[in-house]
Amino acid sequence: METRANNVWVGAVTLALLAGIVLLVVWIARLNHPAQDHYDIFFKQSVDGVTRGSSVSFSGVPVGQVERIALWEKDPEYVRVRITINESVPILQGTTASLLGSFTGVTTIQLSGGAKGAPPITDIGPEGVPQIPTKRGGLGELLSSAPVLLGRLTNLTDRLALVLSDQNQQALTRILANTDRFSASLAAAGPSLKPTIEELQTTIHQANATLASVERLSDSTNAALNGDGKGLTHQLRDTLKSVSTAAATLQAVLDEARPGVRQLSNRTLPAAESSIRDLQATTRALRELTDQIKDRGVGTVIGGPQLPDYRP
User: Fold this and answer.
1) Global pTM value
2) Which of 151, 191, 236, 298 has its CA 20 to 30 A from that of 102?
3) Which of 77, 105, 135 is the last residue of a domain?
């Protein structure tokens, strides 16, 4: 019985020592690992390369790690990433999370932003911890635009293959050969083209002189038209003013003469027209009388008609 009691005491002391060692290890571990806060990040993009334990950095400084990663049950389009960050790291309003890839295939979560003096992110998200908003990083933009880039690259490759087809290569070879022959012909015709080039230079000089003369003529015309007090424009302006004054005077005269003209049209002209008709009738009567006197004598006008001579 006494031996069994000693064994129980030895076992109890051993268990107590083991528990003390475990508590000591945990305490030392907590000393080496400061208190951490939990945050959720919802990515609406591929998170390839992010795994549990992946590093979380703030402006390139490691501040935590990924604790959990899974599709969000409420909306499978989002990937919910639970991260733990040292409590001393200020996660302020304006801080955003993005994915930072590398050529080795390892992807880390990069935190950035947050102005000095801004309040910390404390609003509880849909999963019970504060939520950090996301923004697309370089890798996310590349992955989202990869299908478009691949389509354009395929289209470019097809067009390039069409341009470099056998038929086009033969046509390009003929064009280069023709260009070579044209260059040789041009080099051979160089001495004969020299006089033509000299004549062309002379023509260009003459054209320049003509342009200078035209420019001087234009300046002279401009001076004649726009000269101060003596230009044609000033004279034309005075003439137009005189014409305008004369037109105004003529309009005033016509306004004054309009009643007389109206009376002449309504009274004098009809009377004159009647007198002219009477005069025309009198003229016709006198012409008939003159013709009668000429044909039959004056007696036909003074007395009656002559009796014929009696013949028994």
Assistant:
1) 0.40
2) 151
3) 135
**What are 100's two structure tokens?**
């930072």
Indicate whether 158 belongs to any domain: no
Distance CA 213, CA 207 (A): 10
Total number of domains constituting the chain? 2
pLDDT at residue 149, as a whole number? 75
Neighbours of 247 (CB within 10 A): 10
Exposure of 125 by Cβ count < 10 A (0-12 exposed, 13-18 middle, 19+ buried)?
Answer: middle
Report pLDDT for 307.
Answer: 46
Q: Which residues of the chain have pLDDT under 70?
A: 1-8, 26-34, 102-105, 137-147, 193, 221-236, 253-254, 256-272, 275, 285, 289, 291-312
Cross-strand partners of 96: 112
| Encoded tokens for 35 | 């208190």
- The total of other beta-carbon atoms located within 10 Å of residue 114's CB is 18
Report how far residue 235's alpha carbon sits from residue 227's, in angstroms, rounded to the nearest whole number: 10
**What integer pLDDT is reported at residue 312 of this predicted model?**
47
Residue 261 lies in a domain: yes
Residue 152 counted as domain residue: no
Scanning 189-231, the segments in alpha helix (DSSP H) are 190-226
43 occurs within a structural domain: yes
- What tokens were used for 50? 């992010």
